Amino acid sequence: MMLERSRETVVFYGIHLNLEKDQWRMFFFLFCFVFLRVGETF
Which domain of life is it from (predicted)? Predict the structure, then answer.
């Protein structure tokens, strides 16, 4: 459940990033996306 909630949060941030186009937030979004992807493999 927690993982799914995190996924929704990442998607929510991703949508706002497309609107704001903030480099630092985009970096944070990519970091979280990669972190979740790596977490799935384990």
Answer: Eukaryota
